[in-house]
Design brief:
The chain is α+β, with helices and mostly antiparallel strands. It folds into three domains: 42 residues, no CATH class; 35 residues; 98 residues. Helix content is 66%, strand content 8%. The protein has five helices and four strands, in the order αββββαααα. A hairpin with a 5-residue loop joins strand 1 and strand 2. The protein is elongated and about 110 Å long.
């Protein structure tokens, strides 16, 4: 009965495992709990059979822990950045499998902007024609422009403002064309390397010379 009671008392302790480590002075320590003299180094928790259940890293100070967390955060951010870059590369290559497709979409994008510029230019032409009609009305007041009616002066002002707006818009669209070209140029630099990587191996193999007998 005593043996049974002793065994039941020791069992929980054995189930906890045994901690062991070698301290900075080369001394080996063994305990049923983490060892204070080895907080700055790795400890091993052993099963009752003597096999390693797990390894405990050194206990860090608050400053060391913060530095480690920041290092881990930066490493994770870099891994995420690389994964996102690879995802974008795959998407880019899927969209533009070759230079012809990329050039085609560049031209389509530029053509859209050109159409917008043409529409704005037509509007400027309409406003210039409208101004000629207004100027014809103003001829009656050449000797004393201050006598021109308010509605006519307002038409002059609105016409000038509209022309200025359309010309600013056209200038913005010319800038947009530059931005479109810059984007496609940047993409093409990246795509050149991706196209080379996906090129079939056969295209890079040297051409074997044809023998004279085979040529016949």
């Amino acid at each position: 009965m005593m043996a049974v009671l002793l065994g039941s008392w020791l069992a929980p302790a054995a189930a906890q495992g045994i901690y062991t480590c070698t301290d900075g002075k080369g001394r080996t320590h063994t305990s049923d709990r983490p060892i204070a003299d080895c907080l700055d180094r790795e400890q091993k928790e052993l099963n009752p059979s003597g096999t390693v259940r797990r390894k405990l890293g050194p206990t860090l100070t608050a400053q060391e822990r913060a530095a480690k967390e920041e290092k881990d955060r930066q490493a994770e951010a870099e891994r995420s950045r690389l994964a996102e870059e690879k995802r974008r590369d795959r998407a880019l290559l899927t969209r533009y499998p070759n230079k012809a497709e990329h050039d085609k979409e560049r031209q389509a994008a530029l053509s859209q902007v050109d159409e917008v510029i043409k529409a704005a230019s037509r509007r400027v032409g309409e406003l210039i024609a409208q101004r000629k009609g207004i100027d014809a009305e103003l001829e009656f007041y050449q000797k004393d422009p201050s006598r021109a009616p308010p509605w006519l002066r307002r038409q002059v002002e609105e016409n000038e403002q509209s022309v200025a707006i359309q010309r600013r818009f056209i200038a913005d669209q010319e800038g947009e064309k530059k931005r479109v070209n810059a984007r496609f140029d940047e993409e093409q630099v990246k795509l050149r390397s991706l196209w080379l990587l996906q090129a079939p191996a056969a295209s890079t193999e040297p051409v074997k010379p044809v023998s004279a007998s085979a040529a016949r």
